[in-house]
Amino acid sequence: MAEKDRPGDDVPGDDEVLADAAAGGDVPDDGADAATGSGGTALAERSADSDSPKATKRRSGGPLGRVGGFFREVVSELRKVIWPTRKELLTYTSVVIVFVTVVTAIVAGLDYAFGKGILWALG
């Protein structure tokens, strides 16, 4: 499992909140009437000075700003990746090469056997 609150996380401490939500923790009703069974939908309050996500996108500077934002987000996500060590990388690479070699040998052997069988049956 990944480390909690790694450097570069957007919000420190959010792992506990996300873990509670994933585990099906109790969610407050926010004014739901239990007697009638009608519940309300929780909405974020908007203030006049808060920016919506759409407004933020519009100020990105056109297509070049969006491309730049995309690459900034890519770099941000790549910083969160836990990269394998050199030893792990060599181990994983050798496992893949051995597995592909074994499967290729099995398929080649079956191809040869079926080819000989067809030539014997129809030959």
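(the above was protein one; protein two follows)
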Amino acid sequence: MIYKVYYQENMLQVPVRENTKSMYIEADSVRSVRKKLKDRAFNIEFIQLLEGVHLEYEQAAPYFELEEV
């Protein structure tokens, strides 16, 4: 399964929508995504499962790249 992770790079600052970034991770569950990203100092805002038409749409985008974790 592929998940889209919305995050802020700095955990010490107040989250601001304009600073939100995203990455794509392949994992079995939301819990395993959090476990894979535990070492990084990210403020994870939301983890979204991508499937079906939504996944196809994201994969067609030029910025789609699975993060190797």
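Reviewer note on protein two: The mean pLDDT is 92.
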